[in-house]
Design a protein that fits this description.
Blueprint (H helix, E strand, L loop, with lengths): L1 H11 L22 H6 L1 H4 L26 E4 L20 E3 L8 H12 L3 H24 L6 E4 L4 H4 L2 H24 L6 E6 L4 H19 L1 H6 L2 E5 L5 H8 L5 E4 L8 H22 L5 E4 L1 H5 L1 H7 L3 E4 L1 H30 L1
Length: 352
């Protein structure tokens, strides 16, 4: 399987999943928009060598032996960033999570999607799918023209209606990938550099994820060539209810994992956060037994609400919306600062 070969290649290159450089750990120059946030998080932001204005070199998450990596607070959604990537001050402060299901809810696509999904006329369904392709390509092009195009993690389309119709699901995902990679190819011809990573939706087992991964790689290779297919990180979006052992097996061949709190029905905030932490702890323990350097991120409303606990158990970070990010950045900065003080105090005691 391509996924297994990719895993071997990753291991040989020092566990390179979900590339991110030391300079990229700045976690968002957007914090300069709020002086209080920038002040509180100053030490957190400059933890690694390299300043906030430096250009990232390799975009690789780093995890040194015996050292806890920075806890990442990343963006979810496009609503809180400058529209154009060339505006002053934009900086690839980590991937932005783009839920492509939201594209299907736009006025341009909602009607077409419903018409295609329930059409009983094969010819009409094919024509409608072609129109969906062009709409998805326009949405992809708009993403690539935004600041988020510098680095985005895009989910493969997955809806409750499609989940029970696997043939339709694969058909629409194929169209989505073709549209996305065609937009990337057009962008490359114009000399622009964009990084798009993909998230396979809710695989139930490692075998299912391997099939999804190979599907993504095949479309990428056909559209953009082998070099891009090899460089594109492919992760798995998993639900909190997934059996931990299955998550561990998926982690063997996934470049990164996202535990998605939005995958399950909404519940009262506190119980949801508590249940989410328990699920995250079990999944993380199973994954780290298999792959100690695995990048495991959390997303959805419960993730931001449970940030302190997710930090405590050793998660790599969270994706959160614009409304949650300022508070999340402050809390992460405080937790990191307190951990450093504890470590400094322990080291000092050792000299006494």
């Amino acid at each position: 399987m391509k996924g297994e070969r990719q895993q071997d290649h990753n291991r040989d290159n020092g566990e390179r999943p979900f590339k991110y450089s030391a300079a990229d750990r700045a976690l968002g120059v957007e914090m300069s928009q709020a002086a209080s946030v920038a002040s509180a998080a100053a030490e957190f932001i400059t933890a690694e060598k390299g300043g906030i204005g430096e250009e990232p070199s390799g975009r690789a998450y780093l995890r040194r032996t015996g050292e806890r990596p920075v806890f990442l607070v990343l963006r979810e959604g496009q609503g809180d960033r400058p529209l154009l990537r060339d505006e002053p001050g934009t900086f690839p402060a980590g991937p932005c999570l783009i839920r492509s299901e939201e594209w299907l809810q736009t006025p341009e696509l909602a009607g077409l999607y419903e018409s295609w999904l329930y059409s009983e006329d094969a010819l009409q369904a094919e024509r409608t799918l072609q129109r969906i392709y062009y709409r998805l390509r326009a949405a992809s092009a708009a993403l690539l023209e935004s600041a988020d195009s510098i680095w985005a993690a895009v989910t493969l389309l997955h809806t409750p209606e499609l989940a029970v119709r696997p043939g339709k699901l694969k058909e629409l995902q194929d169209v989505q990938l073709e549209a996305l990679f065609a937009a990337v190819a057009a962008n490359q011809r114009l000399g622009s550099d964009s990084r798009i990573d993909l998230l396979a939706p809710y695989p139930a087992s490692s075998a299912e994820f391997a099939v999804q991964r190979e599907f993504i790689e095949d479309v990428a290779e056909q559209t953009l060539g082998h070099a891009y297919a090899a460089a594109c990180s492919i992760g798995a979006r998993i639900a909190p209810g997934m059996p931990p052992a299955a998550a561990g097996e998926i982690a063997r061949i996934a470049d990164f994992l996202v535990l998605d709190g939005a995958a399950e029905p909404a519940a009262p905030e506190e119980p949801a956060a508590a249940d989410f932490v328990l699920a995250a702890e079990a999944v993380l323990a199973a994954v780290r037994r298999v792959k100690p350097a695995a990048v495991v991120l959390a997303a959805g409303a419960p993730a931001a609400g449970a940030l302190a606990d997710l930090y405590r158990i050793g998660m790599s970070g969270i994706f959160c919306s614009a409304g949650q990010r300022t508070e999340a950045l402050l809390r992460a900065a405080c937790l990191t600062w307190m951990a450093r003080q504890d470590n400094t105090g322990t080291a000092t005691e050792g000299w006494l």
